[in-house]
């Protein structure tokens, strides 16, 4: 039978051709191939593929195979390297006269960019912090916003284990693997837990409760999950305006849309592939491209947002024309983003005069709408009290490259209610010097009757700091401390703030970290020479000591040349590792705290104030000799 033929097929790798009687019997009764080298295996086995595949062909089993996520370096796009998955299936002959023979015609397959799969999920319905993710039947991540497959962002070097990152390594708060096990077992259900999401290069943290909804994807080994942060994504606002009104306001030059969101499908027809999403929407609404397929519900909300946000352009223009409002051009950019991915940007200075040239550009992934998340300034503002501003200074490496700008943003709710959805966020970016000058001016204005401050930042014995809600310094008398963590500058004061409950410490974990390790850059064989090198080094050291009193030290330097030293250099490399590190968040319910900090021959008095409308803290410490 065909099954017996399959089971009894033999492939032998042997250089000599003397066969035993038993082997000859199997060769005559079944299939037998003798191969001289391993290099010939593939070529010879291909001849018997039709035998191997015969049972599935006869049973007409079209097994579909999906691979894990991988990076195809040849298909990099504007956003960098692309994660792919490959799907393949066999092609059989279905003719009745050949079906019993089980003829395999071949295999058909295609490569699918993972981001194309994500286009089927409406990002605007997931809320500000919501996201979709998928895993394989082994629990490995197919796509997830927290997946970091490269050694460094913007580089092309891939991590050695990037295709086998487990879901538990990114959703690490699920200590019992409830979510992971349910998805691996292809179940459908819901799961909730408190999560700590890091933002801004891992230096800040957002604490929230996520509701996870998961199910299997039919016909694939994958399971799909959707995470909705509680308070966002549950309530959705719908507006209604005419197409004429919306089109008029979409024509404004300051309007843009999220390029990675799918408002219209521009991939179906070749003539549409050069269109941006905004261009596609305009053509769709004007009826000039009947073949365009667009999300009508999303476009209706885009039109509404365009109409409602249009008056802010006139307001920004009036500010720009009023020279007294921004005489020193301290405020450089004003911006607005809405729930539909619509953005408005206004420059108060020329583009070439901007201090931060990259802000809100395509390469500034953290601060623009993309397929994975809302802008950083939008997400942070949404987690604060409505109407309050959140401030930040962009992080950079080294003091010389520190950014000279401050970003401030606030969220906009539909109604003045806790359950009312956040529909937009608005903010500005200003020069750091301008912001600091405003702070020092405000710090001198006191509410006492005589106008004098009980504690003045002008006092030489007083150190004043303005720190944001994550403990990073916005303003300090020492300009080089700007952007540093407050605890690195005033460790005792930060500990006191933690003790008083003004700040709380949160422990975070990173299971995709890359740590620097010292590796021996010499070849592997050099280790075999270590005993000889050690002996020679000892002999030469003794001889050197004997002649030191006769010669100058330059002879010693010559003696300890590269020939006498161990010919090995330490090279720093990055290796995968697990890390644990802290983050800090201010406690909004505590408005003002004060306390004393003991130290040698002095006393430090700490006063910390938390403003209602500005979520920043003033920490004042001074010494009483």
Total DSSP helices: 17
Distance between the termini: 100 Å
Ranges where pLDDT stays below 50 over 5 or more residues in a row are: 1-10, 397-401, 521-529, 549-569
- Tally of extended strands? 26
Rg, Cα atoms, Å: 33 Å
The proportion of residues forming helix, as a percent range, comes to: 10-25%
Strand order of the largest sheet: 12-16-15-19-18-17
**Major pleated sheet:** 6 strands, antiparallel
- Which structural category do the helix and sheet elements fall into? alpha+beta
Q: Strand percentage, roughly? A: 25-35%
Query: Could you report the average pLDDT, rounded to the nearest whole number?
Result: 80
Shape by Cα distribution: globular
